[in-house]
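Good morning,

Both structures are done.
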Amino acid sequence: AVTNNAINSLQSNYIIGAVLAKNLTADNTQVNIQPISLNYDGALNAIGLWAGNFKLSAPRIMITNLSGKNINVESLIVTTNHDIGGNTFYNITEQLSLKKLDVSDNDITPVSPVNLSLTISNLSAQGVLNLLHFFQKTSSTDISNDDFHHQLLAFVSQLFTPSTTVNCNAAFTTSLGTFMLTEGMSDLNVEPNSALQDIIKKSSLQMNVRVSIPLANKLVKTYYQPLMPAMGARSSGLAPGMNLTLNQNDVELFNEQIASLMQRGKLSLATSMQIMTLSHEHLTPEQFITGLAQVKISTDTAAQITHMYSQILINEQAKISTPQNTGASQSTPAIDQWIKQGYLIKDNDDYTISITQDNGVTKINGNTLPN
C-alpha cells in the first residue's frame, strides 16, 4: 500500500525458477537449485521501522564437482518475524530447518533433520532505528575501519534494554548421534553509555549442551585436535621447541611451493635453488630461519617462505600428535582431561555441559571459572 507517495505496507510472493550454474571453478563446480519461493508480508511502523514476516523455501540445492566433494540440501526453510510493541520494543524471531544435509566423504553426514531458532525480545525500537540510520550514513561517507567498529559497538549497545532476552535453540541428528543446545540470556544490567562487553558480562546466562559420545569424539578429533600444535605456534609462526625436520615427502612439497613462487616472478632461479638447497639439509625451524636470512630476498617474501616451511612441520607434528586409532567410539585425551577437570559430564551415551553466568561469575557444571 502507498500513502502520501510512500510505501507503508508490502505483500510479495516470488518464485525463482530452477537454476543450474556450471563451470564455476577450475574443478567444474556446478550448483543446481530447484525453484525457490520467497514470501513477505510487512508494514511500516509509525516510528519508521518495518515489521512483518518473511519465508524462504528451497526444495533442494545440489553442489557437485569433479573432485567428488558433493553437497546435497533437502527442504531448506528459513522464516523471519519482526514485530514492534507499542513503538518501544522490537522483537525478532529467526528459524531455520532442513530435512537433510549430505556431504560426500564425511563421517558425520547425513544430518537429518536440522532445526535452529533464535528469539530476541524487547530490544529498544529506537536503538534499532538509530543503528539503521548509522548504516545509512556510513554507506555514503568515508570512515576508517577503526572508527566504524568503535561507533558500531556503541550503537549495538543501545539495542539492549533491562528487559531484553535472548534465546537460542539448536538440534540436529547425524549418523553418529544427536546434538542439542539451549541458551538463554536475560537480566541485562543496562545503564546509560554501557559498553557492550559490560552488558554481556553482567547479564544472566544459561547454556546447556548435550551431544552423543561418538559425535563429540569425532568433532574433537577432526577439528580440535589437529589445531593443538598450530595453536602453540601462532604467536611466532612456529611451535616452540619444534625439533621436527622435513622428511622426503615434505621436501618435495616445499620445493613445489618454492617453484610456484618462482613461476609467479617472486623469486629468481638462483634464489630458488638456494632455498631448495636449504630444504634438503633437514633443518629445524630455527636453523631454517638462520639459513634463509643469508638469502637476498624481501622481508615479505622471507616471511611467506618461513610460514610455508613451518606450516608443513606443523602439519607433520599434528599427524604425530593424533592417535592412530581414530574410531568415533574411542575418547580423546582432550575429552578425558575435560572430564577429569569437571568441564564435561558423561551421561549414559552422551556428554553434557552446563554453563551459567550470574553477577559476573561463570560456572561450568557448577565449577567456578577463575577470573
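Second structure follows.
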Amino acid sequence: MNFNEQLFDKTRKAIPNITTRSISRYMGKSDGYWSSMTSQGSAITTDALLSFASVLDFIRNESPNKQLTELISFVENEVAHRMTYIDMPNYRVRKSILAAVSRINYNAAPLAPLPVLVGF
C-alpha cells in the first residue's frame, strides 16, 4: 500500500464521511486534485500535506479523537521524512545541506528547538 492509499485509509477512519473532493479542498487544492494525483500515481505534494495537517488540526481542536491524532502524526512524519531525506551519496554535502536547513529553521524561530537531523 503506497502513501496515498494509506493516507486515504487513515483519513476515512478519522473522518468517515469525507470525500475525495473534501480531501482535495482540505489540501488547499481544487476538487479533483486527489483523484488526479492518485490516477497518475503521483505523490501528494508536501505543500498540500502541510495544508491538510493544518485543517486536520483545526478539526481536532473542535472535536478531538484518537484516529484524527494518529492521522495528523502520520502526515507530520511523512513531511518530516521528505524534509530530511536527501538522496545524496556524498556524506559531507548531505551533512552541509541539513546543517543549512537547521540554520534557516533556527533563524526563522530562534526560540524553537532545532530540528533533529536524521539520515547521516
